[in-house]
Specification:
Helices cover 12% and strands 42% of the residues. The protein has one helix and four strands; from the N terminus they run βββαβ.
Length: 64
């Protein structure tokens, strides 16, 4: 079962809400950039994850 994460991206942090469809775990976290956010997302390696990102405002830093 997948984890579902909603992400509100800001220049210095991300505010996320998450739900584990398999285990029912849920909550909210504030992840500072870049270290804490990178650690969090790397910890999800190998898991089925669906992430929804707010696509306005500061999202431009993801464009290549």
């Amino acid at each position: 079962m997948a984890k579902i994460i909603g992400c509100d991206f800001h220049p210095r942090f991300q505010q996320i809400a998450f739900f584990g469809a398999g285990d029912g775990e849920f909550g909210e976290r504030r992840l500072s950039h870049p270290e804490e956010a990178e650690r969090f997302y790397r910890s999800l390696a190998g898991q089925a994850v669906r992430i929804g990102v707010e696509a306005t405002g500061n999202f431009g830093c993801f464009s290549g």
